[in-house]
Design a protein that fits this description.
The chain is built from 16 helices and 4 strands. It is mainly α. The radius of gyration is 24 Å and the shape is elongated. The relative contact order is 0.14. The N terminus is likely disordered.
Amino acid sequence: MKKHCLLLTLTIILFSACDSGEKEITISSDIYHESMEKLSEVIVHDIFSPPVASRIYAYPSIGMYEIMAKVDPAYKSLAGQLTDFEAIPEPTEEVSYQLAALEAFLKLGTNFIFSEDKMDTYKAELFKELKKGVNKSYFNASLAYGDQVAEHILAWADGDMYKQTRTFPKFTVTDDPTRWQPTPPGYMEAIEPSWSRIRPFVIDSATQFVPERPTPFDMNEGSPFYKEVMEVYTVGNNLSDEEKEIASFWDCNPYVMNVTGHVMAATKKITPGGHWIGIVKIACQKEATDPMKTASAYALTSIALADGFISCWDEKFRSNLIRPETLINKHIDEEWLPLLQTPPFPEYTSGHSVISNAAAIALSSIFGNEFAFDDDTEVKYGLPIRSFTSFIDASEEAAISRMYGGIHYMPAIANGVTQGKALGKYVIDKISLQNENIAQNED
């Protein structure tokens, strides 16, 4: 009997020793940035289209923000502020909210990609370091809570029509001379023709920010539309080195097809939304933001990007306007090529113009209207750093880059800028991240 009691006592002591450790887990903003970069890396590897990538960024960012905001009285939950989004569950045990937020972000990000093994490997290595010296039960309870919140977010995401749109009809190409047609070298089919059916995060509907109508199609010489086509042709034939650099910097084509003779190879690059997610990191690091402000910047920007794509894609497949390359080759110069590869979807409005300006408005609301920064997002793709005086400065350069690239007429750019700014302002007016009373007291 005494021997049995002794063994039981030793077992309890050993278990307690294994479970001992500090109940303190500090996760720096750099770890959240690193995790976001890893998600971007996998999005590039898996070749997600720009609209789909924006969805992948949004849900994990919201999950991360919601958990952190739960224990920060200066910040508000997004429950009731985002369409159909209900409050996340309460933890049933003592947890590290920062660790739970990281776990929710990684679990959600992994759920929306194809190469889950890449995220799993990253997570295993990261958590191996984070759990050193930490109470095991506390660590595991924090992960369990992060998983619980992730499941809550996934259930919400299931109602956004994404899965249903995977089975919707493809875009129909016709002989109508005004309508978009696939372009060389890949002659890819139109990407996400039903994206307007995706549930928005903040805007009332995909049709809330319908832009002005594009210039009426008319290829008679001297017509307004013909002049727009000729502008693309003339600008494309007389690009300065600076304009070429700007076009390449903002290309952000996730799947560039390179043809040499009979050999075709692809170059993978970051999406337009991914570029702006990179700018979030740059701004946060310049200001040395704490984890809470870091999470709020990612959440607000990703929401603006996601709704921007829904609004823009709604217009693209409403107007179904043909691209400059097709018309120039048919009517003006059959050998002409734009500097950039023409994206596989209709021309109007410019996606870069819409989403860049929406993101710029969101970031300006957090960091200010005159936040200068050096953008090194494209360095890993062999492009130099570019410097900007503000987020709007960067967004307007992103917009005009599409003219230099030879893939948009000017109305798509100008009206896309207007569309994006209006949408971005609506998002920041509609969403309240901070508790104003506490923020004012802190000031």
